[in-house]
Design brief:
The protein is of the alpha/beta class and 664 residues long. 48% of the residues lie in helices and 16% in strands.
């Protein structure tokens, strides 16, 4: 039987209770009280089982306001929504009701449509509020895990072009928090709270985001940089701040403001000899000072393309001796005080994860009356909390095959709380979907006594729409045999959408939606490496005379021309092919072909020509193929770029293919 929310109807009129019962009994489990005192008794008995109270105002002995006073004294009004029933419409009456915690009003005579809609809306609203409130405490660990996951993704995005350790961003974050905490303990004038420290630590992940705009040859140069190259490298601080300053909608967010400070000033020196603004002493925000110190320490202790790793002791000595920058004395004291805890800045595998289970005690447990009593107590307590909790929990046993859902999970997905033979139930299958079931089964088969837990994200059907949830499963093992599993279902839809948007924004051009210049080489090279026997072509498309579009019609019109060309390019290629914007008016198209490339290029070339609001869209194109070039992105690009230049020299508005050029 499906879960029905429990509603208490409080009214001294039996006919009014009967009318409301006729309207609501199909959807709700109804209980009734004929006066205020009985209502208080029923609220006390049923507690959190109640989802809503419909409360009459005019009643003998104890009226509706007196009931509300008792509810407020006992703290029930914060957990139990109340809709007042009354024909009274005076402002004083309504204000007093709201002051006492009433959520809404229903007037007599009753309108069935209004009553059912208001009751349904109030229960749904309250259920969502309670769900969020209870998840706050229960999901602290989950939120931390998701934050770390985002930081891991971010470290990959920022560093995938830079041959540094992928742990650098994580190490800097942990060290930043460690140093700030040490500073607060050491210096009574430093009064930063935990929230501020956590914000700076999180923002530190973006300290090198500007390196995405630095030439990869400079980033990964194994030797010493030339003066010109170093000047280019130094500009990553400015680029990073500018990137963050242009993030829409979040400019007043404290996290973004802190990230901008860190990105711009984490290479400033306390003596004023840093860059880019040559700030001196405490002109440098403390956030940037601490991240700078953490950045230097981790850079010294990690191996880079241009150096070997120093030991922690060597790194500490070099910093304290002023060999690696200039920092405030109080931060250096913090670093010295924290030296014993610096070894905690390590993201290697948890040693406990690889512990040999055979080394654990295998002696049979000794049961006595006290241990049995404790076991019964724990099971009773668990059953009590589960029945009243708003968490989405589940348990599945193999023999017999039964799936048990918590009340909230059953209600959310409109399923029964207990489902026998779940794989044969169409309603459950419609929520899960066959692909998700196969993914779940694959992951479950990997569980073992040594590694009984796993997590995976699945898009389930909620009200006919896909919604992302995180499944956390724990297998129930008796030595090597699994008897079932239990776990939690956590709503991660908003975090998933934000994460995908972050990844997409890092890989795609903001104006056209095509792959961006930084990601195009990585994606194209992966396709080349993936299919070593297929033919591929790389086109470089340049929009002829584009400067006139901006000069004569403005930059907004120029942007529209670029978007139009990008749209035409996208319509000409397949989903497997790659289209990228690599410059102001230059595009790359990477496509697979079988026998003859010329008809394909000719079709694309003529399809993208035309007009936009009277402006002629004409292009020059250079094409390199793997038939005549090495299967290397740089080689293909250089060849196509040379052919494009030849086209532009000979009059533009044409294309040139490498094998045709050789035949000529």
């Amino acid at each position: 039987m499906s879960f029905k929310p429990k509603v208490l109807i409080v009214d001294d009129s039996e006919i009014n209770r009967l009318i409301l019962t006729d309207m609501l009994e199909d959807k709700y489990d109804l209980i009734e009280a004929g006066d205020g005192k009985e209502a208080i008794r029923l609220m006390n008995d049923h507690g959190f089982e109640l989802s809503l109270v419909l409360l009459d105002y005019m009643m003998p002995e104890m009226d509706g306001f007196e009931v509300l006073e008792v509810m407020r004294e006992r703290g029930w009004n914060a957990q139990l929504p109340v809709i007042m029933i009354s024909a009274e419409t005076g402002a004083d009456y309504i204000h007093k009701a709201y002051d006492l915690g009433v959520y809404d009003f229903i007037s007599r005579p009753f309108d069935a449509s209004i009553v059912t809609h208001r009751v349904e809306n109030m229960i749904l609203l309250d259920a969502r509020q309670k769900h969020l409130e209870r998840l706050v405490a229960a999901q602290v660990q989950e939120k931390t895990r998701q934050s770390n996951m985002l930081i891991n993704i971010l470290s990959h995005i920022v560093e995938f072009r830079n041959e540094e350790s992928g742990r650098h961003v994580l190490n800097v974050r942990v060290m930043t928090k460690l140093l700030l905490t040490e500073l607060r303990a050491m210096d009574p004038t430093f009064t930063m709270d935990d929230e501020q420290i956590e914000r700076i630590a999180l923002a530190s992940a973006l300290h090198d985001v500007g390196k995405m705009s630095i030439d990869e040859k400079i980033l990964n140069k194994p030797g010493r940089l030339t003066d010109e190259e170093f000047e280019q490298m130094k500009r990553h601080t400015i680029y990073g701040a500018q990137m963050l300053e242009k993030v829409p909608s979040y400019q007043h967010d404290e996290l973004v403001k802190t990230a901008i400070e860190i990105a711009r000033w984490h290479h400033e020196r306390y003596d004023g000899k840093g860059y880019p603004d040559h700030l001196v002493g405490e002109q440098i925000p403390i956030s940037a000072q601490v991240v700078a110190l953490a950045d230097v320490y981790d850079a010294l202790t990690e191996e880079r393309v241009y150096k070997k790793a120093f030991s922690p002791e060597q790194a500490l000595t070099m910093i304290l001796n002023g060999e690696c920058g200039c920092f405030s004395q109080r931060l250096l004291r913090c670093l010295e005080r924290a030296r014993r805890r610096l070894k905690q800045v390590d993201f290697g595998p948890d040693p406990s994860a690889s512990a040999d289970p055979s080394s654990l005690s295998t002696s049979a447990p000794v049961y006595n009356e006290k241990s049995i009593s404790n076991l019964v107590y724990e099971r009773t307590k668990y059953a009590f909390y589960t029945s009243r909790s708003q968490e989405m929990r589940f348990e599945y046993t193999f023999s017999p095959p039964v799936l048990t859902l918590s009340m909230l999970a059953a209600h959310k997905f409109n399923l029964d709380s207990v489902i026998a033979d779940p794989l044969d139930q169409p309603d459950l299958m419609a929520v899960l979907g066959q692909d998700n079931i196969e993914r779940l089964c694959d992951r479950i088969r990997q569980l073992s006594w040594e590694r009984p837990e796993c997590e995976l994200e699945l898009a389930l059907q909620e009200n006919g729409e896909p919604h992302w949830f995180n499944f956390i499963l724990h297998g129930i093992f008796n030595e090597e045999e699994c008897h079932g599993y239990f776990g939690l279902i956590v709503d991660v839809h908003d975090e998933k959408v934000k994460r995908e948007a972050l990844e997409r924004s890092a890989h795609h051009d903001g104006l056209t939606g095509l792959v961006n210049k930084a990601y195009a080489p990585v994606l194209i090279q992966s396709r080349l490496d993936e299919k070593t026997n297929d033919h591929f072509a790389l086109m470089i498309i340049d929009l002829d005379n584009f400067k006139t579009a901006n000069d004569e019609n403005g930059h907004k019109f120029g942007d529209e021309v670029l978007q139009t060309l990008a749209s035409r390019i996208t319509r000409c290629i397949r989903s497997y092919d790659v289209a990228a914007r690599i410059g102001g008016d230059e595009f790359v198209v990477f496509l697979q072909y079988h026998d003859h490339i010329t008809p394909v290029i000719d079709r694309i070339f003529h399809s993208i020509q035309g007009e936009y609001k009277g402006y002629p869209i004409q292009t020059s194109v250079g094409v390199a193929t793997t038939e005549t070039c090495a299967r290397d992105y740089d080689v293909l690009f250089e060849t196509a770029d040379r052919l494009l230049y030849e086209v532009k020299k000979s009059g533009k508005n044409a294309y040139r293919i490498d094998h045709l050029a050789q035949e000529e």
